[in-house]
Amino acid sequence: MSDIQDSEFDRPVFIVSSPRSGAELLFETLMRAPRVFTVGSASHKLVEGIDALHVRAHGFDSNRLGTAHATPEVITQVRQGYRDGAVDRDGANPRRLPLRLLDKTPKHSLRIPFLAEVFPQAHFIYLYRDPREALTNMLLAWESNRYCTYKTLPGWPRPHWSLLLTPGWRELAGKPLADIVAGQWRAATEVLLDDLAALDAERWRVVRYQDFIENPAGEIARLCLSLDYAWDRPLDGGLAGLIKPPTVADAEIVRRHAADLQRVWPSVQATAERAARVAGVTRVH
């Protein structure tokens, strides 16, 4: 890893996580570091905006991208997109290369081999969150109708598909929503953990969501040291105002689906326990 040279991107960092695990909060905090560049919300379209990488190009199978998708032409397009769109915390473009890139989009949890091929110095942060919390948030995302990733998905009976498109999604057609989010979470998490395990250990590290929200200053200090980021803005006020409390409507939706969420737990338990071991969590509630 240390012998790999990249004249444009210096150790780019990609945050990956199971769906709805708080990656946006971690991203929005880390992007405040000096001399760190992001493409912001453009990341959602940057990769799939390339025709060869759009889900329709491979039969709507999933958002999964591997090394085979990283052709020389695609590598050039992806790197150019990130290079041209990169801005720092103040909205300024990089004055010189290589730049420190930070990126996050939910689909990246299915793209680790692809990203590692496109960016030879890539590092990854695995953000772990209690699976029950993630499943609840996923269910709320589907119910909200605000996370319509694909409004028309061939063979999908619901009006839209929410969040990332996971391998095996067709097997979820016609099932209750709790079964859909459970299958989606399990598939994404298994792919994510398998891909991280295939990397050199020095290329990825874990952040536990609970640790981050309870001690943001400490976790950011630890991460910055690990990533060789500078940090010059205090987090003494914690993350106040950044974490949205659940609404009464959210609580009602969760109550309505509570029995189903409990019913599907055995289908994800083995994956949940594996994720907990990777994250150093001794017990899955």
From TrEMBL:
Classification of source organism: Bacteria, Pseudomonadati, Pseudomonadota, Gammaproteobacteria, Lysobacterales
InterPro entries registered for this protein in UniProt: P-loop_NTPase
Native species: Lysobacter niastensis
Protein name: Sulfotransferase
Database matches in SUPFAM superfamilies: P-loop containing nucleoside triphosphate hydrolases (SSF52540)
Pfam families found in the cross-reference section: Sulfotransfer_3
